[in-house]
């Protein structure tokens, strides 16, 4: 979880916790954020950078091959 402000908080979760998710708190409620990756992508960390953009990092598991990834969301664009 990472907060840019009290009304701009981001959270990510992994399939082990009940399903992959990226969510954003708008100061009133949590909103689902469409996540562009499919398959075995597992987001593990998020950073709502003060200067803009929100970064999500995780891994993709394909058999015995594990690949890392980092995705960036623009501020105000979900």
Protein architecture, described:
The chain has 78 residues and is an all-beta fold. The protein has one domain. Helices cover 0% and strands 56% of the residues. The protein is built from no helices and seven strands. The protein has strands at 2-5, 8-13, 21-25, 30-32, 41-48, 54-62, 65-73. Strands 1-2-3-4 form a four-stranded antiparallel sheet, with no helix packed on it. A three-stranded antiparallel sheet has the order 5-6-7, with no helix packed on it. It starts with a strand and ends in a 5-residue tail after the last strand. The relative contact order is 0.23. The model has no long low-confidence stretch (mean pLDDT 84).
Summarize the structure.
This protein is mainly β and 78 residues long. It has strands spanning 2-5, 8-13, 21-25, 30-32, 41-48, 54-62, 65-73.
Q: What keywords describe this structure?
A:
single chain; about 80 residues; mainly beta; four-stranded antiparallel β-sheet; three-stranded antiparallel β-sheet; about 0% helix; elongated
Fold blueprint:
Layout: E1 2-5, E2 8-13, E3 21-25, E4 30-32, E5 41-48, E6 54-62, E7 65-73
Antiparallel strand pairs: 1-2, 2-3, 3-4, 5-6, 6-7
């Amino acid at each position: 979880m990472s907060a840019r402000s009290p009304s701009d908080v981001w959270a990510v979760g992994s399939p082990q916790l009940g399903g992959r998710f990226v969510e954003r708190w708008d100061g009133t409620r949590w909103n689902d954020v469409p996540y562009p990756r499919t398959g075995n992508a597992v987001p593990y960390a998020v950073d709502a950078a003060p200067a803009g953009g929100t970064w999500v990092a995780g891994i993709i598991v394909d058999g015995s091959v594990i690949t890392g990834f980092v995705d960036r969301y623009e501020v105000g664009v979900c």
